[in-house]
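Journal club prep, notes for RB
We'll compare a predicted complex against what the paper describes. Inputs for the 3,4-dihydroxybenzoic acid case:
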Amino acid sequence: MAETENIGALLARIDNYIQERFAPQDEALEAAVRESRRAGLPEIQVSPNEAKLLQLLAQMVGARRILEVGTLGGYSAIHFGRALPEDGALISLEIGERHAEVARENVERAGLSHKVEIRVGDARELLAEIAANGEGPFDLVFIDADKEGYPEYVKWALRLTRPGSLILGDNTVRGGGILDPQDASARATNEFNDTIAGDPRLSAIVLPILRERIDGLTIALVREG
Ligand code: SAH
Ligand code: DHB
Ligand code: MG
């Protein structure tokens, strides 16, 4: 019975129910996950349901230029690539050479190489370059790299967006770890959420995300005017 079963099992069943109906995995997505695993990358990509949500959010704001911080094997990047128009662009930043290589192959297999550029380096430096080169504004910025960097990444995101843009942050609930932060990464995640909540330029919410445990996606809209 749903009400009495183990909470983790119930969350997984609900997540699966949604995925079966709304986020079926095609060959390119399955291959991206499989090849990332084969290459030994950590399996920390967004879930199929969250990925579909990211794709929808990008479509809802009509995103033409997207910036991603933290590529891994390109699973979320493929979703952003699919949300973009043919002449749209995703720039995705990744510190790991091997991660970027695997991601480029996965993106190529998905037929999205013409829209997706993966840059290798520390996001702190790459973001400064992007700003210095005047490559903004972006219609959507997705932050999903090292959690300690989130407070700095959100500052860049604010500089690299315009009114109407979305700034998104993954892993901002962490099974409740943000309620009583015990380590540097939980503290940084908390600081990220507090910064966004307190910034008058933004209107935002944290959306709880079901996985085996509950995580969250921070969704912030850069206000008009
Ligand atoms: N967005 C991906 C998951 C990203 S996992 C998806 O859902 O498919 C986080 C990634 O951030 C890892 O690949 C990690 O190597 C990268 N990363 C960690 N620190 C970084 C940094 N300082 N700059 C750029 N990338 C970083
Ligand atoms: C984990 C999950 C993530 O989505 C991420 O970006 C980093 C770590 C994790 O489950 O450990
Ligand atoms: Mg994440």
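Talking point for the session: The pocket of 3,4-dihydroxybenzoic acid (ligand 2) is lined by residues 44, 144, 170-171 (CB under 6 Å).
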